[in-house]
Amino acid sequence: MGSSFLIIMYCEDSVKAKMLAAKCFSLVDSLVDIYTDYKPDSELNQLCNSAGSNISFNCSPALFDILKLSKEAFEKSKGTFDITLGPLTHLWRLYRKEKAFPDSVSVNEKLQLTGFRKLKLDTINQSAFLVQKGMQLDLGGIAQGYIAQKAIDLLKKNKIENALVDASGDIVCIGKPPGKTGWAIAVSVPENEDELFSRQLFVSNSAVTTSGDIHRFIEHNGKRYSHLINPSTGYGITSTQNVTVIANDGTTADWLTKACSILPKKEAMKLARQMNAGLLIVETKKGKIVFNSSKNFNQFWKTH
């Protein structure tokens, strides 16, 4: 999905390690072919091409599973995580590439094509129906964490006890490196990918994801608009912050960072508690770094 993918595992048999790595990458490639919107013939794009046709699309088990999880995430996040924002993410992607800012008419036109109520899921027949012509789904906020989790699940099934998978920052791990208390994961300072906080996360059997606007944003009239779009406005959020989530699985960690980036801080903390997840929101205010963290996050974030 246009992202890097890293696997680290500890295995006494190099032949087995090589074989499992190949299996993992094969699994990743097969899921990417389903979920990506960069390939015209992906299953996701085939579904989107059926929008407004009054015909239900029969989904593969893998596609239907992530659509169902996306619906649950939409409901739990009070609509702040929404995969139907595809028309808007495509619009902003185009304008970022051209280093321009979309006019309000274009944004509002695309906004009218969004809304989870326009995506109907049939759990009996495992089919999906897109009500309105022009609808597009974007799984970029959930698929990387989902795929990373599937890769870890495959390794666990094959008796690997210590491993880490990194899908472009969506990290899922089991066990820990030999002689260590956990996998060490750094957290970057907002607006600066080269500067890391001195404290690190030390985690095991968990998933960690950080969302921010280091790479993807548009500056306009003195404001910085993130690639993370607010479903209620159609515009990227303008707060300067990084959001880090520690969750039990990669799928949850992935979508939860997006939702908690949009929700007010109190509601974000409440949602994290409901999902049994740790949450850190790091903001830049008047040139100063401000930390907001849940109680269960700090036990993992240490100076080592």
| Quaternary class | single chain
Shape label = globular
- The total strand number stands at 15
Instruction: Determine the strand fraction and express it as a percent band.
Output: 25-35%
Q: How far do the termini sit from each other?
A: 34 Å
- Looking at the overall shape, the CATH architecture of the domain at 169-302 is Roll
- Reading side by side through the largest sheet, how are the strands ordered? 1-5-6-9-12-13-14
Query: What is the CATH topology descriptor of the domain at 169-302?
Result: T-fold
Number of helices, where a helix is a run of at least 4 consecutive DSSP H or I residues:
8
Arithmetic mean of pLDDT? 91
H/E element order: EHHEHHHEEHEEEEEEEEHHEEE
Descriptive report:
The protein is an alpha+beta fold and 304 residues long. The chain has a domain at 169-302: Roll (T-fold), CATH 3.10.520.10. The chain contains 8 helices and 15 strands. It has a 7-stranded antiparallel β-sheet, covered by helices on one side. Strands 2-4-3 form a 3-stranded antiparallel β-sheet, covered by helices on one side. It has a 3-stranded antiparallel β-sheet with strand order 7-8-15, with no helix packed on it. It is globular and about 55 Å long. The relative contact order is 0.14. The mean pLDDT is 91.
Quick structural gist:
The protein is of the alpha+beta class and 304 residues long.
Record keyword descriptors for this entry.
304 residues; alpha+beta; T-fold; three-stranded antiparallel beta sheet; 34% helix
